Amino acid sequence: MIDGPPQDIAVNGDIALRMTGISKRFGPVQALSDVTFTVRRGTVHALVGENGAGKSTLMKILAGVYQPDAGSIEVDGEPCAFSAPAQALAFGISMIYQELDLAEHLTVAENIFLGAEPAGRLPFTVNHKTMVSGTRGLGARFDFEIDPAARVEELSTGDCQIVEILKALRRNASIVVMDEPTSSLSEREAERLFEVVRQLRQRGLSIIYISHRLEEIVGLADEVSVLRDGKLVHSGPMAQLSIPKIVHHMVGRELTDFFPARKAEIGDVCVTVTRLSSDAGVKDVSFDIRRGEIVGMAGLVGAGRTEVAKAIFGVDPMTSGQILVDGDQLRIDSPTDAISNGIALLTEDRKRTGLCLELACSWNITLPNLAQIGMKWMIIPSKETAIAEEAGSRIAMKWASPEAPASSLSGGNQQKLLIARWLLADSRFMIFDEPTRGIDVGAKTEVYSLLNRLAEQGKAILFISSELPELFGIADRILVMRRGRLVGDFVTKQTTPEDVMHLAAVEEN
Amino acid sequence: MNKMVRQLLPFATLALIVCILWALKPESFLTAENILNVLSRSSVNGIIAMGMTAVIISAGIDLSVGSMMALCGMVGAYVMLAIGGTIPGTGAMFIGSVVAMAVGSLCGFLNGTLITRLKLPPFIVTLGTMSAFRGISYVMNDGMMYDVPSYTYLGSGDVLGIPVCVLVCAVIVSAAFFILRYTRLGRYTYAVGSNREAAFHAGVNVNLTLVAIYALTGLAVGIAAMIATSRTVSAQPTAGISLELDIIASVVIGGASLSGGRGTVSGTIVGTLLISFLRNGCTLLGISTNIQLIVIGAIIIGAVALDQMARSRAEAGRAS
Predict the structure, then answer these.
(1) Does residue B173 or residue B302 have the better pLDDT?
(2) Residue of chain A nearest B179, judged by CA positions
(3) Which band of pLDDT confidence, cut at 50, 70 and 90, is reported for residue B232?
(4) Which end of chain A is more exposed for a tag (fewer CB within 10 A), N or C?
């Protein structure tokens, strides 16, 4: 499907970028520790790793968005320090993010010359002709066909990416970083993009290519670096690697003993999901969960895991399928229906879909539970605070008081606040979507014990996570999603992280 | 600590203004007559401001309240005259008042429904209905007013020396306080305003909550409209022009946030009184109404700027 890399890499072998000893810490999380990353001129360098391995952080440091705590950067042998994105741009480093940052309502030419518009004849005017011909010239030089006068909103995602690339070329970029460029492209558009990437390489540009799709890296990249837990664990020519080896580097870590021992007794089937599909891209997903069972769900970003949760919880409309809980067939059109049927969803983005940050912690805990705690018609604030306090103490919440705003809590405690909410709801079926994202190790362990305790109480738990070690640490079974479909259903003890990652990341031919 | 200062700020400002006026005009300002006069003048604004407080807490806005007040008054007076002749009796006046409140609730319901069903920003919907309601008020009697000479009780009646309109206002304020603090509707209002997505994911029926808030605001406008009609013993199609701005100002001076999730009934009362006392004080001091506009404008900006400063300092304190 993809041609092998050309053999003339060695010719263009000198170093375009050297990042040495880069470390970066966010609060309690060590995002990068002592990473040394080298990219040679005229090569495509793939950067891979699990979610949260530190790829984005490293690239944001390169782009001048973050400043490293330690370490240095050299571009073309020249030491440089970027305190703002503009400085990185001036050194010829261009980022193409997953969410393209184009001004949708402007034309292709206007986007390409944004911030560097050629002056017109009159003061304060822009010379449109120069922009259009400039864009055409750039396109011709690199063999791209694109209408400079087209509005960006009318373009396909693939064409938008070309515009981003032209924008980088207009700025005379020598290093282009592409973050998951194919995640929203069709097969054909992706093929075209690979062609473009090869062209850029031929002209001596260096491309840092971040992707979760390992099979496309095999055909495209000259070199591969693998990050794991903020450390560089492997860097070398692609020719010496294979997909299984890359996967091994990505996940090959020891499972430590911070996972609590599982004691729950697994009972009868509690939840049965049959042929679930939704507009948001879930296709024909079926699984069941027993009482007291923790079922993990693995998959790459965009594989449709969160969408499964949303369809079950009534956020996205289901287009087909059935959900049975304790034998009752449920009709769920909104989260209100889901909650009243004993389903809970801890969403992955606690700031956006979880908490009301400026409201009191107690209010956040009781929000979905007011009717259940006997306050359907009238709220009694003193009693409400007492209930919230009790719910908080069950999971050792650290707060100034239940009346303090949720924004005053640390990330881990905000997550616990939401868990306290769903504990109070006393649901039968609980879905946890990335419950340990962005919280420190101590808080993670607490979350694991909580999941365990809930399972012991006989609840059915669906645990969505991008971190394989935690899935292997506490899940009884692991479901694997890829492109909206369920592609694997394993008993945890009978599988390996490598198998799961392989199934999640590699397209079958 | 900082939060306390912030919440006390409007109260302190109000106290300061009262003190200054008292010092400047000891003989005319702090008399029972003048105070009752200010209160009864505030009652129309105060009642509508209760609805607006809930709307602003829900991260919305209602620009149509002024026009809606004119429309409710016109419909109410029309019904009174249609039933009771040129000098309507008690029964006709009662029915007219009830119809006016129903019209207000309906207008509010319309606002809420357009906002939630068409998924339009409240600013746009109520900007549109502001114009439409005003237009209907003019069309009703060819731009003329309706005289209802017997309709005096709400506007100038009193119970044990306290104006009826002040009592009505007190009832509405209590109801608003109760709803926002002690009911699920109130709680959901804060939740929707603070984070609509999060409220939705917590099972809050966001649309129902919003429709209820706008409809209740309409009801408040209907009640206020009857007080305003009774005060002038006539319903005027020009009533309440630019009233919405005064109301929004009092809610915001009272510490509510236009981005939602924040606001209190007590703050709004203070904000409403602050504007009324300023007006009254300026009149007593012989400052022209034109200058009053300038003073009030400065107060709005000053009050919100101070509040913002206290907030960002509190946030900076938290971050460090």
Answers:
(1) B173
(2) A378
(3) very high
(4) C
